[in-house]
Amino acid sequence: MKNIGLLPNSTEVTVCFLGGELTTLNINYLRKAKLLVEGALSDFQGVLIGMQTNLIMSTHKLDEVYDLFDGNLGTSVDNFTDARRFKGSGKLYKDTFDKNISHLRSHKNKSLGACYVVSDEGLPNVQKEVDLAKKNKYPLKLIMARQSYKGDSYFDFLNGLEKATDLYLNILEQWFMKSDVPLDPFLYMLNRKLSQLGDTTLGCFESCNFTNSCHKQGVSIEPNGDFYFCQEMADLKRLRLGNLIESEFDTKPIEISQFRESNISITCSSCEHFVSCKGGCMAYSVDLGLGYQNKDPYCSMHYAIFSKLDQLIDQYGISEVIKWKNSL
After folding, report:
1. Which domain holds residue 53?
2. 164 lies in some domain
3. What NCBIfam families has UniProt attached to this entry (predicted)?
4. How many structural domains compose the chain?
């Protein structure tokens, strides 16, 4: 780990169990899995473990899972199509989902964070998802779908980027200094900007998907033991680091990521937002066939958002922006 600049005794690790069907597993099995991860990462300064899954379960099971992961539970949402079904029914899925959200609000006084995948099909519903999150007071993260994804979450990059950029900028202006609900990627991007302007509340940080050092940020472990830098690279089946079950490890992906870090630091260094963006996501570059060494193909969108954030910070004043941000 020292070879990639990672020192466990001064590093905090976040672990996410990811999968819609995870909550079908016995709670004792999940408890043992969590203990196993905690033991394996005991050398690190701190370990935060959570789960992202669907909420289609009994309220009793939901309470067990919520308590096991200390409330670090998230889900994905799709409130305006019938793509998600429970026992063949889109209505039953939504009713069960809404029931469990209400249960957590009334019994735990909490709302779960959610993510929404912005696809061609879902682009018209982004504003409605944001409005619903604000109404029901749950944090929301917007995630651009990959172009090569096989399924409903496909995004047509060439024809959709300008429309998506305009939509994001409009939503950003509606949210900034007005909403009381966290909304990503805008909050993360704002924090990156504020950290460079003297806000020390979060310290120095860098994480997916605004990074050029994937080899330092994390790993994604598949059920068969294969592991990659992230879930996106795992889905793309690119830069496999090895297999934990078979004790296989390949240093080549780390070397490729380190070379990207050096290359991006040169090619993007003249950009006024480079320190915030860090060249963006390697997986999106690979997804569009641009290779491992290029910047994120959503560069123009990110540039527009970071530029708008600069304008808004100047407009409202940094102290007022930090005060509002910390209230979310």
Report:
1. 13-110
2. no
3. rSAM_more_4Fe4S (TIGR04085)
4. 1
